[in-house]
Design goal:
Elements lengths: L2 H8 L3 H8 L7 H11 L3 H5 L14 H16 L3 H8 L3 H8 L7 H11 L3 H4 L7 H16 L1
Helix pairs in contact: 1-2, 1-3, 5-8, 6-7, 6-8
Length: 148
């Protein structure tokens, strides 16, 4: 596929596609999702230079995967949002917003968070386990009911 075709089909500018291919840009994950969707590859394969994903393609936006995996790894390590924010050089509110999928992180933001957690970026992009999202939704519903 040509850069022009990819740009047209993904609604990402050709200069942006060129810069990404050359490693000269710091794209947002929403942009990477658009490119991955057109190329029919998992976001993990796109980020890891074509290494096959450990599971079948997950069509969920990368932000959802990043948010859940950051929270899961952070909790497993017993690291607070505050500690992670200091170690990754982000505001604490940024880490909280990332875990709630409020922000659209750049590649370098997620790399910094992965480094601070001591994992590779591919760990934060792993597809979610079946049922993980449903469990999160149940927690959200319970929390909302308690607040009302």
């Amino acid at each position: 596929m040509t850069q022009d075709a990819l740009a047209r089909m993904s609604s990402v500018s050709r200069p942006s596609i060129t810069a990404m291919e050359r490693g000269k840009s710091n794209p947002r994950f929403a942009t990477l999702d658009q490119v991955a969707r057109v190329l029919d590859v998992d976001i993990l394969e796109l980020i890891t230079s074509g290494l096959p994903a450990s599971a079948s393609a997950d069509n969920r936006p990368s932000l959802e995967r990043i948010a859940r995996n950051v929270n899961k790894v952070r909790a497993a390590l017993g690291v607070s949002q505050e500690t992670l924010s200091v170690q990754s050089r982000h505001f604490r509110t940024y880490v909280g917003n990332l875990e709630r999928q409020v922000v659209n992180p750049s590649l370098s933001d997620v790399e910094a968070i992965a480094f601070a957690l001591g994992v590779g970026i591919e760990t934060l992009l792993q597809p979610l386990e079946p049922g993980e999202l449903e469990v999160d939704m149940q927690r959200l519903v319970r929390k909302t009911r308690k607040e009302t």
